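Fold this sequence, please.
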Amino acid sequence: MKCPYCGSLENKVVDSRLNKDYTITRRRRACEACNQRFTTYERLEVMMPMMIKKDGRREPWDRHKVVEGLQKACEKRPVSMSDIDAFVDELERRLQDLGEREVPTRQVGEWVMEGLAGLDEVAYVRFASVYRQFKDINEFMDELKTLLATRK
């Protein structure tokens, strides 16, 4: 593993831990050249389905893209990075459990909104406003009314 500080390839593992689902290994490493410490994560690489976009294009699943979207929606909200990672881990499990080779992004977007509604309502509304591409304030208000109705 290349040191992010000095670029050396010589380092040693100081500590290893598994996450609670035993699917990710977190390793603390120490560079033998500059003595800086850094963390790496190992996760099992599984074949994820292709995403079918609205216009019919197909793209490979991109975890980073989903995490970035969630980070934007959750910006300045009490949602930690570990909450977002756990959210996306669950989303990936759900995709794998489907057993499909291709999944419409529309389905994934609905799952994200469903999960965000329980995670943080403000993040949900932010995500929904971009995902559903509200044309005016009335569409926005309709979404808020739906959210409020499901809370009762």
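The CA atoms of residues 31 and 58 lie 41 Å apart. The beta strands are 11-18, 24-31, 37-43, 50-52, 58-60, 102-104.
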